[in-house]
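Could someone model 1,3-dihydroxyacetonephosphate with this protein?
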Amino acid sequence: MRKLAAGNWKMNGTAAALAEIAALNARYDSAPVDILICPPATLLSRASDTAGPAIATGGQDCHAAHSGAHTGDIAPDMLKDAGASYVILGHSERRTDHGETDATVRVKTVSALNTGLTPVVCVGETEAERDAGQTLDVIRSQLAGSLPDGLDGAQIVVAYEPVWAIGTGRVPTHDQIEEVHNLMRAELVARFGDSAAETRLLYGGSVKPGNAAEIFALSNVDGALVGGASLKADDFAGIIDALAQA
Ligand code: 13P
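Reply:
Sure, complex below.
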């Protein structure tokens, strides 16, 4: 399986930020790992034109429908038309800010797959859930609810992002990350069979160039979903290079 370094720019970046993608393109003609940038939708088309052959682009969300009367929403077909090959779904900020449920994420995942996009489905516990000892139950239940039946494991990416680690500089212990990633692999194999050995499992939450190598050494960590440190080409390159060496 090819590992994946994915950047989620969230609601950051105007035209000037395309220079960061141009800098990554200049640095990686080809790369030993897959590289993905998910800019805001307003930049997607230009980001795709700037990215070059070694860098894929993706959306940060999509609607489940392919077109229609949904003011402000974006269909997966529109992301694809703007050059995307991936879409992040069920990020905790979507679940919190927009009330997305596992059921919402599941129908979006089906729609993204039908459009030929690779979904990056996000799961993760809150701090209160971790403190209550519910982490593994939460992850099991989010995976069960957010993924449709009958998947080929190679078609999807799953990201574990503990909500309390996002943008906080706090990272779970290595044991905590491995416990969740090993559970996710086992759950996916139990449900989708051997193909789930090919599902890329990303860790996300305060990944930086300085901690990336130790996270990538953990079992069943096949890459990262990076927020803040993906906004600057030099920082993201530090993470990409650590993944390439893992
Ligand atoms: P940070 O890397 O800024 O903690 O964000 C993680 C994240 O939410 C990526 O989707």
